[in-house]
Write the structure tokens for this entry.
Amino acid sequence: MIKKRILLIGPDGQVGLQLHACLQTIGQVITAGWVQSPLPPMLALDLTDHQNIRQVVAEAKPDVIINAAAYTAVDKAESDSDTAMAINATAVGILAEEALKRHALLVHYSTDYVFNGKRCQPYHEDVTPDPRSVYGETKLAGEQAIQTVGGDYLILRTAWVYGLYGSNFLRTMQRLANERERLSVVADQIGSPTWSFTLAQATSQILNLYYSPFCTLSKAHMTGLYHLTAQGQTSWYGFAHEILRYSQQADKLTAITTEDYPTPATRPAYSVLATDKIQTTFGLHLPQWQQALAVCMALRG
Ligand SMILES: NC(=O)c1ccc[n+]([C@@H]2O[C@H](COP(=O)([O-])OP(=O)(O)OC[C@H]3O[C@@H](n4cnc5c(N)ncnc54)[C@H](OP(=O)(O)O)[C@@H]3O)[C@@H](O)[C@H]2O)c1
């Protein structure tokens, strides 16, 4: 396989950090993001600056653009919708335009929060989205911007991302369990906890297949919208219980309802994503969420 030029946007986020490591076998990774981050990127990029986005793509001359950056503060977005829309939608449309101009592949991550959560069976890609939060609306607008521009793209909707780095549920639960005697966690929202490494590894496997000279699938067959999470489902309480079981702190937990824990943004009650399309198309085997968590916990030590 000829090594590709990969523009990785948001290399210091949870998913971006893992991608940076996983993409090295596919090509030369050119990072772009905030300059003030602990791991300074190669190119300075602020996604609210549209001209800056175009300049960065022109400079990087990528074959692949991977956008791992986003406005991910779900509750803050309720009162900061303009910024969330600029980053999660407008910037994404510009990336799609730039990718199309260069005939580059655009890989972009979206969210289970595009759904209203009223179902009780996994969401397939063809279910009509109906976001209930500003974050969900802006992420859906980002998906639509890419689809309107067209070109070669992969939109990978994921959910409940955690990992060893960054701000996430796993790290918050571990910190709180060390600080407090009791922890109350919502037990009536159901989803699929997904390790950031699972996402990065799957993305890398997909790109390997996409660019393989031995791949018999057409680009048209491979590009499009996919759901990508670990398999299985649980509640936030169930996820916290499994995390704290490793440190014998699970007995600190109390199950509560969404009503008991009001937040500015409404979250879907049920947002499990069906992953059969991505697994079948690309021959992936996605782990059960508990298996992935076990490996992550072992690495954490
Ligand atoms: N986290 C989840 O549970 C979850 C669930 C479903 C889908 N997703 C999606 O998965 C993708 C990756 O999420 P993640 O959890 O890895 O997010 P993350 O850890 O919050 O990382 C997002 C990155 O984007 C950067 N960023 C924010 N605004 C920017 C701007 N204006 N210009 C340049 N960079 C900017 C952030 O920098 P700073 O941190 O310095 O601001 C950060 O490095 C996103 O598309 C997200 O919507 C995440």
